[in-house]
Amino acid sequence: xxxxxxxxxxxxxxxxxxxxxxxxxxxxxxxxxxxxxxxxxxxxxxxxxxxxxxxxxxxxxxxxxxxxxxxxxxxxxxxxxxxxxxxxxxxxxxxxxxxxxxxxxxxxxxxxxxxxxxxxxxxxxxxxxxxxxxxxxxxxxxxxxxxxxxxxxxxxxxxxxxxxxxxxxxxxxxxxxxxxxxxxxxxxxxxxxxxxxxxxxxxxxxxxxxxxx
Length: 213
Fold this sequence. Notes:
Elements: H1 13-23, H2 27-30, H3 36-45, H4 49-61, E1 66-70, H5 76-84, E2 88-93, H6 96-108, E3 114-118, E4 131-134, H7 157-173, E5 178-183, E6 195-202, E7 205-212
Helix pairs in contact: 4-5
């Protein structure tokens, strides 16, 4: 069972600053902010620290200042992004207990520009964002090999397609400028109006960046 509280970081601001510097050095170090169950899922469900740093900097260098992570899980990308850039990061996640874990991780590491919302993406607006990050957030619903995070999400080809098409529709309707970075894609193709700016190897796949101007 996932521990909603997870490990605690002792000490004042200076001690936390030193811990943050050390935690951004590797996934093994960063993931100690989470409990054992969450750490066991890290390799396949949470963005690697090195990839998160690169993706966050790609987004901000392209002009994004308020970035949405769709399917933010335990908040790893948003926390890392808030710690290594000056942008604001918001994670939207359908599992409420993961939102709580993400909020505690952000608070423990002093990531004040990382916040989290419990919602499905079909009920969430992209209106206040100029950046978006996607780490194949709906693949869990159709993969026979990816371990499920918990029993809260059912395997469903129909739901997988529904949420992919929802994201495509929201990106299509987004006001420019909108910068999108994907890791392992998101299950669909970018809508018309987006121009590919970059594609590079990262982690065990690649990062791709798109812009709507």
